[in-house]
Amino acid sequence: MLLAMLAALATAPALAVPTGMSPYLYGMHDEPDLSLFPSEDGCAKGWITLLEYIGDSGDCAIDHSRLTDQGYGVILRLDWGGGPPLPTTPEAIAGYAAKFARCVAGSVGVKVWIVGNEPNIGWGYPYTPAEYADVYLAVLDEVQALPNAGEHEILFAPMSPWAWTSHWGDWDDGLAAALDRVREQGGDVDGVAIHAYTREMSVAAVTSDEWFPGREGKWRLHFRGYRDTTELLAERGLVDVPLYITEAGSACDPPCDPYLDEDAGYFVALYEEVHAWNQANPHQVIRAVTPYRWTGNDDGSGRDFCIGCSTPLRQDLANAVALGRTWDDTGCHSPMSPPPVDPIDGGVPPGDDDGALADGGPDPGGSEGEGEADGVDVASRRPGSLDAGCACGAAGAAWSPSWLAVAAAVLLRRRRRVARRSGAGAGAGAGAGAGNQREPEPP
Q1: Residue pair 165/412 in contact by the 8 Å Cβ criterion
Q2: Quick check: 152 and 21 in contact, CB under 8 A?
Q3: What is the DSSP secondary structure assignment for residue 349, as one 8-state letter?
Q4: pLDDT reading at 318 higher than 90
Q5: Domain spanning 2-436, CATH class
Q6: What are the angstrom distances between the C-alpha of 353 and each of 200, 369, 421?
Q7: Could you tell me if 215 and 171 are in contact, meaning their C-beta atoms sit under 8 angstroms apart?
Q8: CB distance 22 to 73 below 8 Å
Q9: pLDDT tens digits, residue range 273-290?
């Protein structure tokens, strides 16, 4: 069956990545200065991670066509509220899931969605792995009832790295338990969001395999902590699912300045690390890295992660983007010489102005103690589309292998969804989600 699907797709008209996605690895948390991620011929070099609060009732109209018509990819996190970010009662969960589906159904410009954020540290409510899994399943059920469900990816929430809490346990153990519960209940895992940071701003830290003190062999101390998640997924046969690093960069124990005001090649190293990973691991491809964050916004700890406030950091990003690294073979443009970045003229990028509270930021965590935080993320409500494919590939170009796999996976997901909602998938138990399972390959 899969071979037949692939054969049919191989003879179909050439397509590049769909509108609402980008074939490039680059991006930013918050809408940045778009000139750093230039758009040429309708194909922009990057992704933007945004947030909206949706509650659990009412209509929903989300439009990001201003960005996606230029070829930018949009990753949209939908939170129930500011604190806690996800619903906590059966009635609120049902309402939030239904509202989430209405947002997907009525959206223009978004194909990638995240169900909440960092449930392992709670943000005002002590979620257990089972509770988060049940919220994710409720959202998945509602979205899967939509006629165009297969066009959208509903991502598992990212974990706060280096964190232990009494209600979740170690972040990775709780994540494993939540994933297992989803699949035991017959659910699919559409994709996974990841948060990965270095604990200092240095090129060496990006590729370091140093272990977190007290969690040796379990948690990596720096950016390669993303591999802790990929290994956990592979152990469960959860490969060939979309992966997105929706927060990345430098974090530190407050009080501190996470980013040095210098062009040290840090972001170049970050993206080159992920590009090398993708080349070596075609069944666990990371599609985007959106560093945290563009705007000036103290997270309540005295740390300000404002990348857009620094001319040298902007140049570092421009140097990375100039290399033209893609996660998909239908890349739009060849590598280019990095353009010089204009100095910031006596100001800083505007912060979010919707009156929300300060962003909680990445929790430095620790092997002991509650990783709770009172801060909540700031919504980025900006206009914004999907439908027609991004004009990123040359006319008549062959389908890339990665998109053949993605398209086949979408067809398989649609078949499972129809079966599940008709009752045919009931009682699947441990066999559920077989379409996105694969035996882990030898190391």
Answers
A1: no
A2: no
A3: P
A4: yes
A5: alpha beta
A6: 29, 33, 42
A7: no
A8: yes
A9: 999 999 999 999 999 999
